[in-house]
Amino acid sequence: MRGRFNPVLLMLLAALPTTSCGSGGLRGECGAVLRFGDTIYRSVGAQQVPARGAPLGRAGYLGCGDSPAPGLGKDDVFAFVAIDPTKAVIAAGRRADVVYVNRDLPRTQWPPLVRQAAALLKCTKPMTFQGRWNFVYTDTVPGDELYDIPVPYRALFTARTSESIDPATWVSWTIRARVTKDTAPIPPVHTATAAIKSHQPVTVFTICRGDIFEVTHLELSR
Question: pTM of this prediction?
Fold first, then answer.
């Protein structure tokens, strides 16, 4: 895959509703905002997916210019752990749960767990996790074929179970990790592509290189 890639952004866009808007002869798409009660929320690009709290009801969406968007329907809304629902909630999106934060709150006033959900996860200690392998990518120029990427390359995983993940708070974490010549064994690219395409469960062992996760060992479930 050539160039930089933001798979988490693409996953968020796939989960979010959109509505057409335009002026004159120009039309485009804008992301809808959520309205629940008297509060309007904007979506957060969550790197860590929170566990649903208590059900709060159903919420509708507003389109461009905060106009009602009944065509987008309504989604179930849940509490985000113990956060005040006027500050942040979780909505059951089309493909995945989406974190929404009060649109009037500046980022500096977001609740700590919302900031944690939105932040890129940094390595602070060795971690072993089970989950799914989502992507391999690099900032260097790869070979002629898709996924023809030399070591070292970066891998994107969804970690679902680990001693580090509190299941009462989080459903999954997004882990970016480097596969290097010291990874044993080094997963061949064709093995990676097969695991990604088949959603094959994977167990990943990592250490920290600074604040970067580095894969020391990787096991694919059979």
Answer: 0.78
